[in-house]
Amino acid sequence: MVRPVVAWRSIESFKRMPPDNFKRTSRIILAIEVALYCFIVMAIILMLYM
What residues does each domain of the chain span? Predict the structure, then answer.
C-alpha cells in the first residue's frame, strides 16, 4: 500500500505548481495515476483468485 501514498504526494506536489501548468499536467498525471492504480488493483485481485 505504498503506491497510493506516493501517488497522493505527487498530486500534492503538483498542486503547488502554477495554475497554468497545473491544468495541463494534472489531467495527464491523474489519468496515469488512475490507470496505474486500477492496474495494480486488478493484478492483486487476479493473484488472489489464481
Answer: 2-49
pLDDT digits (tens, 9 = 90+) for 1-50: 456 666 666 666 666 656 666 666 777 878 888 888 889 899 998 988 87
Residue 12 DSSP symbol: H
- Owner of C-alpha cell 496505474: 36
- Give the integer Cα–Cα distance in Å for 24 and 6: 20
| pTM of the shown model | 0.45
Q: Residue 17 carries which DSSP code?
A: S
The C-alpha cell at 18 is 502554477
